[in-house]
Amino acid sequence: MTTRIAVGINGSPADARAVEWAARRAARDGAALTVFAAMNPLPEGGTAVEVKNLEHWVDGLLSEHAAAARALEPDVEVHTEVERSTSLPAAFEKVSSRVDLLVIGGDTDEERGEKRPGTVRIAAVSECPVVAVPDVDVSGRSGVVVGVDGSEVSANALEFAAAEAAAVGEPLIAVMAWQSDISYGYGYASVERFQLTLDGHSRQELETALESTASNHPGLEIRRVVAEGRPAAVLSAAAENARLLVVGTHGRGAFRRLLLGSVSHDLLWNVALPTAVVR
């Protein structure tokens, strides 16, 4: 059960969507919500007056979004917090160590229309599951899509996704992608036969992965998708009309800041819908 949720804001267009998502989730789970902002206490070249103005702006931003969260869900306990750090990832990592779920907005440079790496960097260091929420309206969509590859991390993502789907009464869409490298198919009578073998093995592996999910959530509608292609592309296609996408990522000790995982990295670099990253 999620009891503590934090949502990070930075003045971007996605802030409102992220706060709304976090408030709705807090109300559903009976969790407390912290709206926070990360602030560099020693900005390069900043004067005392500029730092004071920045603090004033951050306080106003927090008050605005906390009020919005309370208006959306009056029964949710809402707090505000400023996390001071010279490192953005370090600030979010510290907050993530104190909560059960971290919600952030999808990063976009409004002027250039470019993606920023903040979402990827935060997900790479977070101690808890992270949900990245872009400035996209997903009302009217349904379903929770999850990537499955048979690993332990994938199993954690699958359980997170199943619990989410069960809680809102929507279908769970379990996706497994496979790719064929002809060099590995040496000895098969044809490329087609090799690909059919890969597809069949993938379907069996998906069924095995879903056994405990079906047992733990007996009333849950589970849809299976097995397709050839790059995992990120297959997942994106499957999630086109979904409400949430869930992927697993491996923590790799001291290297986890750099090695988020190619699938998670690709999906977070172009966040098209609320996307959860689970270890």
What do you see in this structure?
The chain is α/β, with parallel strands linked by helices and 279 residues long. It folds into two domains: 4-133, HUPs (Rossmann fold, 3-Layer(aba) Sandwich), CATH 3.40.50; 144-278, 3-Layer(aba) Sandwich (Rossmann fold). It is 42% helix and 22% strand. It contains eight helices and twelve strands. The protein has helices at residues 15-29, 48-72, 88-96, 118-125, 152-168, 191-216, 231-238, 262-269, and strands at 4-8, 32-39, 78-84, 101-105, 108-109, 114-115, 130-133, 144-147, 172-178, 222-228, 244-248, 275-278. It has a ten-stranded mixed beta sheet with strand order 3-2-1-4-7-12-11-8-9-10, with helices on both faces. A two-stranded antiparallel ribbon has the order 5-6. Strand 11, helix 8 (262-269) and strand 12 form a beta-alpha-beta unit. The chain is elongated, with a radius of gyration of 20 Å. Mean pLDDT is 89; it is low at 109-114 and 251-259.
Label the CATH architecture of the largest domain: 3-Layer(aba) Sandwich
Low-confidence stretches: 109-114, 251-259
Count every helix, treating DSSP H or I runs of 4 or more residues as helices.
Answer: 8
Distance between the termini: 16 Å
| Biggest sheet character | 10 strands, mixed
